[in-house]
Amino acid sequence: MATNAPRAVFVTRETDYELLLARHATREQARFFLETRSQQLAQVEARHERFVDVLRQARTTVPSEWRQTLVRRADFDRFLFGPEDVVVAVGQDGLVANVAKYLDGQLVLGVNPAPDLYDGVLVRIAPERLARLLPASVHDDVALERRTMVEALLENGEHILALNEVFVGHRSHQSARYRIAVGSAEENHSSSGLIVASGTGATGWARSIMEATGIHLSLEPQEKAVAYFVREPFPSVATGTTLRAGKLADGGLTITSRMNEGGTIFADGMEQDRIAFDWGRRLTVAPSARTLNLVTG
C-alpha cells in the first residue's frame, strides 16, 4: 500500500514589518506612521529581511523527495496536520506553544531566526542543522523532549489543550466567580481568574504569579504534572482563599462557573480560540495524555 512522503510543515507568524504593511497598505505609509512616533522603519525592515532569509535557508534543507508547505499562525485552526508531518516552527518560542495544541504526536523542530531577540527555550535549532535533523526525525534518530501539556475538558466534551497554561476567568476585568474542587476540598471563589500551568509554562506567566505571591512550586517540563494558581482570590463570607495554589499529578481540579456571562477559557494567550464558560458549566483541568514532542538534537 502506498504511503505519503513526509511533509515538512513550516509554521510562522507575521513579522512586525508585515503587520505594519497590513495596517498601512504601503511601505511609505508605514514609514510615515513610525516617523510620527519618532521611530524608524529601517530597523523593522532589517529584522523582516533577516527572518525571510532564515526561512528561505531553512526551506532549502528539506529533502527533495519530501513535500513541504507553509502555514501562518492565523491559519492553524483551519490546517489539517497529518501523521506524516514534521513541523518546523521558525520564530519566537511562543510560536511553538501556539502550534502545539493542534498536533497529535508530530515532531516539532524550533528554529530561532534571531538569537539576539528570542531566548530560544523552545526554538533552539540553527537552520543549518535542519539538513541532518529532518531526515533523522522520521527514522527516530533524534533527541526528544516530551513536554507535558495541559488539558481542559468541559462536561459536554469540548476541550482545549495548552503547552504553557490554560486560563479560566472573566473576559473583562470583572471578578470571576466559580466553585473550585481539588480532591475532597472545595470552596467558592471570587478572583481575577486562575491559570493551570505545565512545567514549560512555569517559566512564564506562572513564574510571575509565584514571584508576586511567594508561593513557589517545583515543576519540570517533562514531569507528568501541572500546577494551578488563583489570581487575587478575595475573602468574604461567601468566598474563600484556601485553595489558591497547588500541584496536580494524580488527578485534576474541577471548576464550576458561577458567572452569568463573560466567563471564558483560553490557552497559551490565544483569546480568539476561547470557549465560553458561563453559569453551570463544569470544567476539569489536568495533565494531558498528549505531549509536545520537541526535537532538541
TrEMBL record:
Q: Which residues form a coiled coil?
A: none
Q: InterPro entries from the entry?
A: ATP-NAD_kinase_N, ATP-NAD_kinase_PpnK-typ_C, NAD/diacylglycerol_kinase_sf
Annotated GO MF terms: NAD+ kinase activity
Q: Which GO terms describe its biological process?
A: NAD+ metabolic process
Q: Which superkingdom heads the taxonomic lineage of this protein's source?
A: Bacteria
Which residue positions does the secretion signal occupy?
Answer: none
Which ranges does the record mark as transmembrane? none
Name it. Answer: Sugar kinase
Organism annotation: Mesorhizobium denitrificans
